[in-house]
Structures are given as structure tokens and as C-alpha cells.
Amino acid sequence: MSSSPPMRKRVEEYIRGLQAQIVSELENLDKTAPKFRRDSWVRPQGGNGLSCVFACPPESGGTPSSLETILEKAGVNISVVYGVLPPSAIKEMRSNHSSIPYDGETSLPFFAAGISLVIHPRNPFAPTVHANYRYFEITEKADEPKVIAWWFGGGSDLTPSYLDESAVKHFHRTLKEACDQHGSELYSAFKRWCDEYFYISHRHETRGVGGLFFDDLCSETHVRLSNDIARPRTPDEIFSFIRSVGDAFIPSYIPILKANAIRPYTERHRRWQLLRRGRYVEFNLVYDRGTRFGLNTPGARIESILMSLPETARWEYMSDLGVSEESEEWPLVKALKEPREWV
User: Fold this and answer.
1) Which end of the chain has fewer CB atoms < 10 Å from its terminal CB, N or C?
2) pLDDT digits (tens, 9 = 90+) for 141-169
């Protein structure tokens, strides 16, 4: 009886397939738009990846493209990398993974694989979306190394410029249905974590209307989950959960994008969208752990890390938009100040 492939191989196969599905779905939405650029790369320190990026080429003179595409900028990236963790990194990881040995001097091999995507549509009524799912393992130093620690992380979240409650409820309901297949507590715990994580402290608001966020999901006790409620614990069980929420991306988001991509909008709507994108940039560069970790990692691929930023954004001093409770922008402002339960 043959044993199943190592988890690292199974994760890699899954994220490559999911990337291809998502890119194909987005390209089929707008057949007159440029195709995603496929950029295959190799990490000198170990590993490789494929960045699939959408952007309209600028006009002559560097001015923004005049093409009215559904997407303005998007990226669907995967990376499969390996290397050696220094003792300082191991010490930090031990707070959530006590099985990792630490003596202050020894480095350990690691493997990481994940998919990360951000989609910025052109229409102000079509929300930005972000998702990523990842697997990390640490092994012994040996010819046939034993895995001594492993975990999964990820999530998906929605960032609209204008609040469409039916769209937000659809997004959350789809994610909840995927979570509920694997445990009754997962959606509520990871939705709460998402609201807390994507919080812009200096603005006193969340980045968007939430979704899921989780990390360090493994067989060990998890600070966010109850010990007496059934949940995925084994590598196979958690990988099954990852596939469920990963597969939920297309049905959770594409119908929203289709419904809003060609809605008419005004210069005011566009101005507000760019202001909201400014907040998106603030969170990613000031607070996001993944961005900060990537920028501080030797040999990191900066172009892929900063793929999440929008092509255009705006900042205004004491902007008059989103201030009046009677304005079209106010429902979103209120939802960002006071996160809600959507399902």
C-alpha cells in the first residue's frame, strides 16, 4: 500500500492548481483586456514561484492607460521556498510551537509554500479583495529530515469603497459555509481575528469589511479555539479545511465583481475609491506582518511583495468626503468604525 505524498508536495500541487483556476476565471471575465503576465522566478537561496500580474500598459509619456478594463491591477502569486531559519527566528516561533528545539545557536531547515492574491477592480463599486493560504514546516538537519513543527495560515477579506450589504453578506456566507464543514467554531473565531488584524489604529477603523484570518493552525492547542469543540487537528484535516476555504474564493468574490464591474460611476465615486485605496496602502506598509516580514527578509522578491499595492491612490488633507452621515460614503465609514456580524 503506497503512502500519500509529503504534505509539502500536496500543498504545492494544490496552490498551483488554485492559481491557474483563479487567473483563468479573471481572464474570462474581460476577454478584451490584456492577459495576466506570467513571471516564473527562482529564489537563489532555494525555491521558486510564479507571479501572475495584471496591469494595463501605460500610454506614451507614462500616463495611465485609457483602457476601460474590469481590473485595474491584480496579482495572483505562488511561492515555494526553502532555506535555513536562524536562531532568532526559531526563538520567536517557539511561542506558538513548543515542539521546535531551541538552544540559541542552532539553525534549522524550513519549507514554506503559499498562494497570495490581491485584486483591485477599476469600478469604485467593485470591491478590492485579498486572500492568501500558506503552509510552513521546520525539519531536523538530516539526509532524510523529520518534520518537527508545521502549521497552516491564511484568510480572505473584502475591501469595498461603497457598502453593498447584500454583497458583503454573500462573501461572508460563502466563507462560513466552507468553514462549517470542518467545525462550528471556525468561522466566528477567524472572522473576529480578521476584524482585529486588519485594523488601522491611527485611523480608528478597519481596512475593510472583514472575512477570515488565521495562523498557526496545527495539532497543538490554539489560543483562538476551544479545546472541547471539534476542529481540524491532523495535517490531513487541516489541509482539507484549507482546500475548502481556498476553493470558496471564486464563488465568494467573482459574482460580486461581475455584478459591479460595469456600473456607471462619477468622478466623485472615483475620488473616494482612491482615498480608500490610500488607507489600504497605509495598512499594508505600516501594519501588515507579511509585508514587513517580506521586506526584511534577505533575498526576498520585493516586486511580488509590493504587488498588493494599488496602481493609484490618493490622500487629501481634511477631505470632505465620508464626513456627512447623509452622504453615499457614510454607510461604509460606519461599518469600518463599528465592525458588524454579517451572517
Assistant:
1) N
2) 766 678 999 999 999 999 999 999 999 99
pLDDT > 90 fraction of the chain, expressed in percent and rounded: 77
CB 243 within 8 A of CB 150: no
Reported as a single tens digit per residue, the pLDDT across 2-20 is 578 999 999 999 999 999 9
318: phi then psi, degrees, rounded to nearest 5:
50, 55
Q: What is the pLDDT of residue 66?
A: 66
Residues 6+ positions from 53 with CB-CB distance below 8 Å: 36, 37, 39, 74, 75, 77, 307
Does residue 321 sit in helix, strand or coil? coil
Sheet containing strand 211-217, strands side by side: 37-42, 47-55, 71-85, 108-121, 128-139, 147-159, 211-217
Give the whole-angstrom CA distance, residue 200 versus residue 276: 12
Diameter of the chain measured on Cα atoms: 68
Say how far apart CA 186 and CA 178 lie, in whole Å.
Answer: 10
Orientation of helix 165-180 relative to helix 186-197, angle to 10°? 130
The CA distance from 107 to 281, in Å, is 34
Which residues are catalytically annotated? 130
H-run or E-run covering 155: strand 147-159
The CA distance from 89 to 95, in Å, is: 11
Amino acid letter for position 46:
G
Helix, strand, coil shares, percent, the chain, to 5? 35, 25, 40
The residues near 11 (Cβ < 8 Å, ≥ 6 apart) are 113, 135, 239, 242
Instruction: Tell me the pLDDT tens digit for each residue of 212-258.
Output: 999 999 999 999 999 999 999 999 999 999 999 999 999 999 999 99
Say how many C-beta atoms besides its own lie within 10 A of residue 224's C-beta: 15
Look at the chain and count its residues.
343
Q: What angle do CA 100, 47, 73 make, to 5 degrees?
A: 110
For residue 168, give the C-alpha cell: 458583503
